[in-house]
From TrEMBL:
Protein name per its UniProtKB record: Protein rogdi homolog
Any one GO CC term of the record: RAVE complex
Pfam families: Rogdi_lz
Organism: Knipowitschia caucasica
Subcellular location, record wording: Cytoplasmic vesicle, Secretory vesicle, Synaptic vesicle
Length: 116
C-alpha cells in the first residue's frame, strides 16, 4: 500500500466544471514526487468526481464490511467479492476517463446520482 505523505495542488473551477488541475503527490516510503495535470481541452464536471468517489467508497465498504474473524469458505466466495470490488473500481475509473457532457440538472434527473 502506498501512503501519501504530502498532497499539494491547484484546482480551477468554472461553474460546475473542473477545468484545470495541477497536483503533486509525495509518497512517504520512497520520497517519490508524482505530478498530475489535466488536459486543457478536457473538463470534468463536479458530479463525475462525486460519482467516482461514491464508487470507490462502495468498493472500500465491500472490503471492510466483514468481521475481522470472518474466514472465506471457498475460492468462489473470494472471487465473488473481488468481482464486486472490481466492478465498483471500474465504474469509478469510467466516470473519470471521459469528461461528462451533462449539466448538473441533467445528471440529477438521469438516475446516475447516488444519495450519500
Amino acid at each position: 500500500m502506498c501512503r501519501m505523505d504530502q498532497v499539494k495542488g491547484v484546482l480551477t473551477l468554472q461553474g460546475e466544471a473542473l477545468t484545470q488541475a495541477d497536483i503533486n503527490l509525495k509518497t512517504a516510503k520512497s520520497n517519490q514526487l508524482l505530478h498530475f495535470q489535466f488536459r486543457d481541452d478536457k473538463h470534468w464536471k463536479l458530479q463525475q468526481i462525486q460519482d467516482a468517489r461514491n464508487h470507490v467508497n462502495q468498493a472500500l465498504h465491500l472490503l471492510s464490511c466483514r468481521d475481522d474473524t470472518y474466514h472465506f469458505k471457498t475460492g468462489a466466495e473470494v472471487n465473488k467479492l473481488m468481482d464486486a470490488v472490481m466492478l465498483q473500481l471500474t465504474r469509478a475509473r469510467n466516470r473519470l476517463t471521459t469528461p461528462a457532457s451533462l449539466t448538473l440538472s441533467e445528471l440529477a434527473t438521469s438516475g446516475l446520482m447516488v444519495p450519500v
